[in-house]
Every structure is written in structure tokens, then in C-alpha cells.
Amino acid sequence: MRVWGKLKDGEGRVNESLILPIEAKKTIEIEDFAPIIYELCIKLDLARPVILNKHINEMKRFRRTVFKQADFIEDFYFETFEIEIIND
């Protein structure tokens, strides 16, 4: 399995993206989700977002979630940070 992190601007264009391999699991819990998000943030040179239950629930149901500017405490210069799980 892989995780695709995308930074999009206000017009929906992908400015930067990164794909990380992850261990395949049937369910995603906060213990699994947070380290993946933080690794993506380090590699994309982003501040860490606040991970809410909304994000975890979206990952469990849709295998995708979106972080917006309000989810970051520090300055975030993109419209969204999107994360999607891709099956191999």
C-alpha cells in the first residue's frame, strides 16, 4: 500500500506531491495515521496539521482526507493538503 500526499493551490492544481510506501492494514487508527502524516509533512517541508476525528473517520471510510488552512497552527501557504491511500 502507498500514501499519496498532495499540496493544492486555490485553483485545484497540484503544486507538490509525494508517495510513501506503508505497511498494508485493513483498518487505520490514529496510532497508524499520525506517523504517516508527520512523515509526509517532514518530506514536504510542512508544519504538522492538527489531526481531528473528522480526518481519521474520512481515512477509514473513504481512504482519503483533506487538511485545510484552518487545520494548521503555523502558516500554511496552500489551499489544501490532501492524503489518499493507494492500493498496489
* Mean of all residue-level pLDDT scores: 88
Shape: globular
Give the strand tally. 4
Termini gap: 5 Å
The radius of gyration is 12 Å
Q: Label the structural class.
A: alpha+beta
Q: Encode the helix/strand succession as letters.
A: EEHHEE
In percent terms, what proportion of residues is strand?
Answer: 25-35%
Spatial order of strands in the largest sheet: 2-1-4-3
User: How many helices in DSSP terms?
Assistant: 2
Please estimate the helix content. Answer: 25-40%
Which regions contain 5 or more consecutive residues with pLDDT less than 50? none
* Most strands sheet: 4 strands, antiparallel
What does this protein look like?
The chain has helices spanning 30-44, 53-62; strands at 2-8, 14-21, 64-68, 80-86. The protein has 88 residues and is an alpha+beta fold. Strands 2-1-4-3 form a four-stranded antiparallel β-sheet. The model has no long low-confidence stretch (mean pLDDT 88).
